[in-house]
Amino acid sequence: MKLNQLRDNPGARKTHTRVGRGSSSGLGKTSGRGHKGAGSRSGAKTKPNYEGGQNPIHMRMRKLRGPHMKKSMPFENFRTKTQPVNLADLEERFDDGAEVTVESLKEKGLATRKDPVKILARGEIKKKLTVRAHGFSAAAKEKIEAAGGSCHTLEP
Hints:
The chain is α/β, with parallel strands linked by helices and about 160 residues long.
């Protein structure tokens, strides 16, 4: 194979459509621009998202609310208001037989926000811990109790 033998893949280069070359070409007379109006004139460009004078969709949509307009009102339901703490973090930062509370989690650098704390099951736990949190995933509760620990749910 030599450089002069290289070819593009089939369909990589398309010939441009020649408009205004007679009625038999299918794109004669108005050259696909229709009759009259701004779109038929030379240099005509439409703005992106322009809807022909109709009120555009971004103006018809509901306005964003909130102090920094980060969210739209009907789409707020998917956000969780808890902060997660994984079992792997508890295993790493607490000694065997320790009591895990929201205050002790803050001291260890976990659960630093004011939101309720939920314990999740990522990681393994082999230490016997007494865990007091606002919520537990089912798998996390199962793993903590299997290791000999106990789970106590706090009121949010």
